[in-house]
Design a protein that fits this description.
The protein is α/β, with parallel strands linked by helices and 489 residues long. The protein starts with a strand and ends with a helix. Strands 1-2-3-4-6-5 form a 6-stranded antiparallel beta sheet. Strands 13-12-14-15-16 form a 5-stranded parallel beta sheet, with helices on both faces. The protein has a 3-stranded antiparallel beta sheet with strand order 7-8-9. The chain folds into 3 domains: 84 residues, Phosphorylase Kinase, domain 1, CATH 3.30.200; 240 residues, Transferase(Phosphotransferase), domain 1 (Orthogonal Bundle); 133 residues, 3-Layer(aba) Sandwich (Rossmann fold), CATH 3.40.50. It has 16 helices and 16 strands.
Length: 489
């Protein structure tokens, strides 16, 4: 290919990269006398007419993405059956080359991740999903003012269509993604949306902080871990400097197995920028952790919000708390504020969330739910005493302190006994239909049962079926309220 002229105007001068998708060349644009980078699609993929059509359509979408942290797409064409994409040529190193297998300086790591999140905000606004965020696709461009973060390969982002033949990962670098940074939905071959990019960015941010991604091993081990295993919290790793609790919670939320429960790119960007701003004063501020720990991560749209919170993604007018991003947009502050009350609540919530939430679970617990609770930071204590009519609820659990109890299906008498030990989250205790599809929607007929359960001692109730992350939030909220009430008393 070297020396070949594509479309009569792009001369390929040197190969500068290669992968499963194709090869990248340094090229010279003859008519404008400038150097560019050209990615030529692999001949095997180029032979698929459908792939060519998708490549053309998605190259046009990628060309619409204009952002300081995104490598610009300049042109697209087909030369003798080979589709190619023309991009700006940059001098510098990939983030992989910069990392060298070691944790990066904390502020630098947070700043790089914030720039990538900013690029994702702009991309997702035009429904462009990258699907392969990783250090190899993050470029540190050398400029006169220093390194500049640029995200590469948006031009090939949409080749993974979600179809069974393309959406499932078969080898590293294939269109489905890269195993060490691949979201659970990509592993399962499900439809991939913006939340997949957040998961991949979470894996990359974890690696920037820890020096390694959250999961390591063979291809099969990586795919299994991405789909089911909870990552080890950053705060439990032996690192040169302690990881602030709010940074740990941010990364763990980005790595949620449930896509709807991951924060938005805007929320990630805001949280990272806050951490960068606060970093210089962290060592000298004794109240840093307690003052910042009460700031909750953004919740999914169907979850309850704390009082006084600001809607995510709502543009703010100038002078109304707007924050200027790198792209020049004014955006509302998306952080959820702490619940109203005195200052002790702020310190208390930080103390609760700094340690794993110890949850006593009565009855059967599905493996997927247990993994989800563990991934959300819960320490699960089992007590399968439901088949023992002579046993008391909680008898089979250890005698250690319990933060909260998850007790679906217990009767009112058992509920009262459990409530004497710890806050209890339970269901309404109503008979259910054999088929979930036949269950009526919650309505006024359930209000008497709700009042009865609350009078029996329930701290909170589950009416609808919840995901593990939603249940973990409910359990945490119940534990926090109980601690606050005890402190006030």
């Amino acid at each position: 290919m070297l020396g070949r002229v594509l479309a009569k105007k792009y001369r390929l001068d040197a190969e500068i990269g290669a992968g499963a998708m194709g090869r990248v060349y340094r090229a010279h644009q003859l008519d404008l006398t400038r150097n560019v980078a050209i990615k030529v699609l692999h001949p095997l993929m180029a032979a698929d007419e459908g792939a060519q059509l998708r490549f053309a359509r998605e190259a046009k979408v990628a060309a619409r993405l204009v952002h300081p942290a995104v490598v610009a797409v300049l042109d697209y064409g087909i030369d003798e059956g080979l589709p190619f994409l023309v991009m700006e040529l940059m001098e510098g190193d990939t983030l992989r080359q910069r990392m060298a297998g070691e944790p990066m300086p904390r502020v630098e790591a947070l700043s790089i991740a914030a720039e990538v999140a900013d690029a994702l905000i702009a991309a997702h606004e035009i429904r462009l999903i990258h699907r392969d965020i990783k250090p190899e696709n993050t470029f540190l461009q050398h400029t006169s003012s220093g390194a500049r973060v640029r995200v590469m390969d948006f031009g090939l982002a949409f080749l993974a269509t979600g179809e069974a033949s393309l959406g499932r990962m078969t080898q590293e670098g294939f269109v489905g993604g890269t195993p060490a940074y691949m979201s659970p939905e990509q592993v399962h071959g499900r439809g991939v949306g913006p939340a997949a990019d957040i998961y991949s960015l979470g894996c990359m941010l974890y690696e920037l902080i820890a020096g390694h991604p959250p999961f390591r091993g063979s291809l099969a081990e990586l795919l299994t871990a991405q789909a089911y295993a909870p990552p080890r919290p950053l705060r439990l790793l032996e690192l040169p400097s302690p990881v602030p609790p709010e940074l740990d919670r941010l990364v763990m939320s980005m790595l949620s197995k449930s896509a709807p429960l991951r924060p938005t790119p805007l929320a990630v960007w805001q949280a990272l920028r806050d951490l960068v701003v606060d970093a210089p004063s962290r060592a000298s501020s004794a109240s840093y952790v307690s003052d910042r720990a009460a700031r909750a991560l953004p919740r999914p749209s169907n979850a309850p919000r704390a009082a006084g919170s600001v809607n995510e993604g709502v543009p703010a007018a100038a002078g109304e708390g707007g924050i200027a991003r790198g792209s020049g947009h004014a955006l509302a502050d998306t952080r959820l504020q702490s619940e109203p009350g005195n200052g002790s609540e702020t310190q208390l919530s930080g103390a609760i969330e700094a340690q794993p939430l110890r949850v006593l679970v009565l009855g059967e617990l599905e493996d997927e739910l247990e993994l989800g609770l563990i991934a959300a930071g819960c320490q699960v204590e089992r007590d399968d005493q439901g088949d023992d009519p002579g046993g008391e609820p909680g008898d089979r659990a250890s005698s250690g302190p319990i933060d909260v109890v998850w007790a679906p299906g217990v009767d009112d008498a058992q509920l009262a006994k459990l409530a004497a030990r710890a806050p209890v989250v339970t269901d309404l205790g109503l008979p259910r239909s054999p088929s979930p599809a036949q269950e009526p929607a919650p309505g006024p007929h359930e209000f008497p049962a709700l009042l009865r359960r609350l009078r029996a001692g329930a701290t909170d109730l589950v009416i609808d079926e919840l995901t593990p992350d939603q249940l973990a939030r409910k359990l945490l909220r119940a534990a926090r309220r109980s601690k606050q009430a005890a402190r006030r008393t």
